[in-house]
Amino acid sequence: FDLFSSPKKLYAYFGLDPGVNDSGKFHGDRVHMSKRGSSLARRILHMVAINNLKVDKATKTPVNPVIYDYYTRKCASKKKSVAVGAVMHKICNIIFAMLRDNKPFELITPEEHRERYAAEHPESVNTAA
User: Fold this and answer.
1) The Transposase IS116/IS110/IS902 C-terminal domain covers which part of the protein (predicted)?
2) Angle between helix 80-101 and helix 7-14 axes, rounded to 10 deg
3) Closest CA to 111 of 82, 72, 69
4) CB burial readout 12-33, b (16+ within 10 A) else e
5) From residue 97, how far is each of 33, 50, 102, 124 by CA, in Å?
6) CA–CA separation, 111 vs 96, rounded Å?
7) Interatomic CA distance for residues 80 and 13, integer angstroms
């Protein structure tokens, strides 16, 4: 894990970082995934993303409601394939945090995470709000 000092380095390893489209004085504005990294890791990450977006047919609830909510918000303004790429990016963040903190995955909402963080780190919480 020493190879990845930041999440951006992990994105680059998976090939999720933005590719550059420049030539001479031309600077492209359409940004795509670079796909320079490990194609196997990217395919596995894509499968993880798709499986997190599934909805249980019996209960009609998403398998991972936090990721599914993020995906639906992204789909409101982006194409579905771009939204899946954003989900892959978010899962990459989760993987980095799990490896950095040496903790297992725990499904919690962002609100619950903020409450836990505020309880553990009272000095860093902004009380002026």
Assistant:
1) 3-60
2) 130
3) 69
4) ebbbbbeeeeeeeeeeeeeeeb
5) 22, 20, 8, 19
6) 20
7) 23
- Residue 22 parent element (H or E): strand 22-23
pLDDT, one tens digit per residue, over 63-104 is 999 999 999 999 999 999 989 999 999 999 899 988 888 889
Q: Across the chain, what does the average pLDDT equal?
A: 85
pTM assigned to the model: 0.79
pLDDT tens-digit readout, 40-59: 988 999 999 999 999 999 99
| pLDDT (mean) for 31-41 | 78
Query: How far, in Å, are 6, 18, 72, 77, 122 from residue 80 at the CA level?
Result: 27, 18, 9, 9, 39
Per-residue DSSP letters for 58-120? TT--BSSHHHHHHHHHHHTTS-HHHHHHHHHHHHHHHHHHHHHHT-------HHHHHHHHHHH
